[in-house]
Design goal:
The longest helix is centred in the middle third of the chain and has 36 residues, at about 25-60. This protein has one domain (about 25-129). It is α+β, with helices and mostly antiparallel strands. It has a 5-stranded antiparallel beta sheet with strand order 1-5-4-3-2. About 35% of the residues lie in helices and about 20% in strands.
Amino acid sequence: MYIERKHCEYCGKMVHGRSDKKFCDDYCRSSFNNERRVVDSKEMRNIINTLKLNRNILESIVAGGIEKVRVPKEKLARLGYNFKYHTQTNTNWKGNSYTYCFDYGFLRLENDWLLVFRVIKDLNFDDED
């Protein structure tokens, strides 16, 4: 009977143990899978970081408990806001389009002005009974 000798898919060392084992130890298995995920997740990480930055910029505009603030669009752009990335858009029955970045959002007004606001949701848990 011929016994096939297997080598670790990450480091190339001889693998001992089960016949379906691909890696010599947990370190090699983790390293192999982490390297494989880096390519896919780099772009996602960049997008998530941009979304977080956008949210923080909106939060800095609506600071100190103010409900909503009217600002020029240019101010957000100057602070580094990337208008390409947001988490949600909604259009109300009047046709107004609201753009959200997590729990903050804005409404485009006339002459390149924006109405920036924080979304406050009423959490009512009394209905669960």
